[in-house]
From TrEMBL:
Its cofactor is [4Fe-4S] cluster. InterPro entries: Elp3/MiaA/NifB-like_rSAM (IPR006638), Methylthiotransferase (IPR005839), Methylthiotransferase_CS (IPR020612), Methylthiotransferase_N (IPR013848), Methylthiotransferase_N_sf (IPR038135), MiaB_methiolase (IPR006463), rSAM (IPR007197), rSAM_horseshoe (IPR023404). Binds 2 [4Fe-4S] clusters. One cluster is coordinated with 3 cysteines and an exchangeable S-adenosyl-L-methionine. This is tRNA-2-methylthio-N(6)-dimethylallyladenosine synthase. It catalyses: N(6)-dimethylallyladenosine(37) in tRNA + (sulfur carrier)-SH + AH2 + 2 S-adenosyl-L-methionine = 2-methylsulfanyl-N(6)-dimethylallyladenosine(37) in tRNA + (sulfur carrier)-H + 5'-deoxyadenosine + L-methionine + A + S-adenosyl-L-homocysteine + 2 H(+). SMART domains: Elp3.
Amino acid sequence: MTDFNPNETVKAAGGGAAMRKVFVKTYGCQMNVYDSQRMSDALSGEGFVPTETIEDADLVLLNTCHIREKAAEKIYSELGRIRDMKAERAERGLGTQVAVAGCVAQAEGQEIIDRASVVDLVIGPQTYHRLPHALKRVEAGEKVVEIDYAVEDKFEALPNAPKKAIANRGVTAFLTVQEGCDKFCTFCVVPYTRGAEVSRSFLQILGEAKRLVDAGVREITLLGQNVNAWDGEDEAGQPIGLGGLLHRLAAIAGLKRLRYTTSHPRDMDDELIAAHRDLPQLMPYLHLPVQSGSDSILKAMNRRHTGEQYLRLLDRIRAARPDIALSGDFIVGFPGESDADFEDTMRMVETVGYASAFSFKYSPRPGTPGAEMDGHVSEAVKDERLQRLQALLRRQQVSFAEGLVGELLDVLIEKPGRHAGQLVGRSPYLQPVVLPETAGAIGDVIPATIHSAVANSLVAVGALMPDLNAAPRPSPVARTLA
Ligand code: 5AD
Ligand code: SF4
């Protein structure tokens, strides 16, 4: 799953008698963002209210990512700062509990407390429903490590988000439908940190989606490490896959947009491809990582498909939904990657033409087969390859955005803009779109003509951009701007 803003703090619902404060910091992917929200919901039932000021927090909760070494190491530098803060609070007579959740917690367990004694609680992603109970043990003076794979269904056991909390989070929402991975790509820690593939039940998902829409959500992104491996049974007990699930969700009145991420090429079945053809709510934007364009590297990565098979799959998806835009993930410098292998990746990117993509230097992860392979690539070569790949991907992203200038796009209005007189929405392709405040209300999907593409955003005709002194790109619609 793709990395997300590492600095996002998550608001929990207010309420409760004791009014303790919790500061939540989320690292890594969208699944962690979702999990942080669910933990915040569980904590709000225990009387915790959110704070965005870490110094005020009675409980600091770090929801961590283990996907690459850098992500994991960040946690320890953060814990160093938290240790100082805890000492300062102690001088003021205030106690502070420190909890580490997420994939570093699952992977390192007790080691975290051994390395950073400021930590009181280590809790893995499969046991979040036990968080309130674990905190009570911490309050009683214990150091707690909760990383067993729970037998009970954590989603069943976690409280539903209060309507007000959902509404505070805005008109777009994540909904985890599947967790874990059975694919065992040789670079990846996910099968070890998140365990085997597990699908949430259809009825649980449907219930949650309806509650989200009822609270004002207009766009739902279904999440899973391998979301298109989702399977379940519909109301009638008939087996369905992700395509079938999307059909059922699209029928919820008031739900305007659906997305899903992250998919594996091997799990893109006909039903799912047909959903792209048949469901106007399903946005024409697909994150479908290929990781490498070289067949021998794909084999060493255990991706279990070739570059050619990936391209033929894209042909089928594009036949179903010709305007679909693609996004992907790439790893450079996997063990054994030669110059020629890397050129295959560059060629693959040239052939596909991505609207956006994430690319990373290979980071050996303890316990994964890749870490033990021969032929590790030097940092210097990884750096050079990453720069070349990112320059190409960036050019493709810019040209995709510029190609939208003059087009009429459906935009979901999400929030007020940074400047007075502005609103910000999302294009079907996930780009932020700056709109004039007259465009509509938050939650509306409105047609907007694109005036220009600036940095990572699109600007709609009529939007005020007081911070931009660059001359607007000439376009057929530029004259209508002040
Ligand atoms: N090194 C570098 N990148 C990795 N990813 C996963 N594991 C590693 C690793 N060990 C990347 C993949 C995946 C994305 C979420 O992170 O590209 O799709
Ligand atoms: Fe990791 Fe591969 Fe599973 Fe994705 S499909 S989570 S990259 S093992």
